[in-house]
Design a protein that fits this description.
Elements: H1 7-10, H2 32-43, H3 63-80, H4 83-96, H5 101-129, H6 142-158, H7 162-171, H8 174-177, H9 181-198, H10 202-229, H11 235-256, H12 270-283, H13 291-311
Helix pairs in contact: 2-5, 2-10, 3-5, 3-6, 3-12, 4-5, 4-7, 5-10, 6-12, 9-10, 9-11, 9-13
This protein binds fe (ii) ion (FE2) (2 copies).
One fe (ii) ion (FE2) binds next to helix 5.
Length: 341
Amino acid sequence: MAKRTTLAREMEFPPATEQPNVFPLSWRKGTEKMEEIWTASQREVWDPALLSWDTFDPESYTWEEREAIAYWWTLLSVFDASAPPVFAGALIKTYEVHEEDAVRRCFFSVTRDEQNHEQMCGMAITRLLGWDDPLTYEPKTELGELAQRNAKWLYFNGGRYWEGYKQAVPKYSLAVLFSSFLMGEIAAATIFHQMAEGAREPVFEEAFTHIGRDEGRHMAICMSLMERDYPQLDVSDRELITKQIRAGYLFLSAVLYEPPADFWDLPADFVDVQRRCEAVARDAGFHIPDVDAKRENWRQAILNLKAVLDTYDIPFPAIPEVGVTGQEVNDIDLEDIIPVF
Ligand SMILES: [Fe+2]
Ligand SMILES: [Fe+2]
């Protein structure tokens, strides 16, 4: 049995707590912008359960349409369902490193937002399929069959980064960890805005409006962190950031553009099946930007990030897929990914 400590009988005050410990007992003010973002997140909080679900009738769609639209939500959920644990990990880190009070709150808000996104995916999928799990659902059509096989491969690939992420969190600073975050958030904010605009179902329009707004705030959090920390960046961190950006591109392309074949381990007809699902969903009034619009959206987000990194002299990786030149980065593995969305 462990010996009971009796320090309190021997000393008037306890010894100093070894630092950094898991939590600060202070509410240090710092970046004003973070305070503004937190206030906005409180004002803009939403509940996916309270959207106008009563106007949504899955039975007004054919089974093929239902499965195609559910496929898109499943694709999104491969990213958004992993985001709550990812950001919960980052939130703990903000306490461990005794971040500013407002930074801790901002990471808390991202964790909450991402869980809303994940819940929204679940609610849409469950109603569309009449089943709460797209991987064990029994497909009703040939396209539904293929879509499910695609989903299984996405899920397999998406699960491969978690161990790497857990190892990366204690090793790197927040600014390095979330360097590719900005690019994903810029592109996500745009794509959700487009999807809200084109949506025929009120419930989807509402959801995409909220999700797009949330991603815009996440983008601002990332930007403030960069503006605060990049001017003091260690030289060795620069190389890592360049690599992270390339990794972020490869990873997020699966949802924001199309998955690069040399990185994602997918069946040969994966993209073809995805395009077929998207075409059916689009015809059913579920707006998804076409491949050219996605590429342009992605390119703009990348150029935006490049402009930010240029101001801090951080070399940008080459992304020839969307016509962006820069430093060659090869050797990227799914294990290197720091997933953020
Ligand atoms: Fe999200
Ligand atoms: Fe996000």
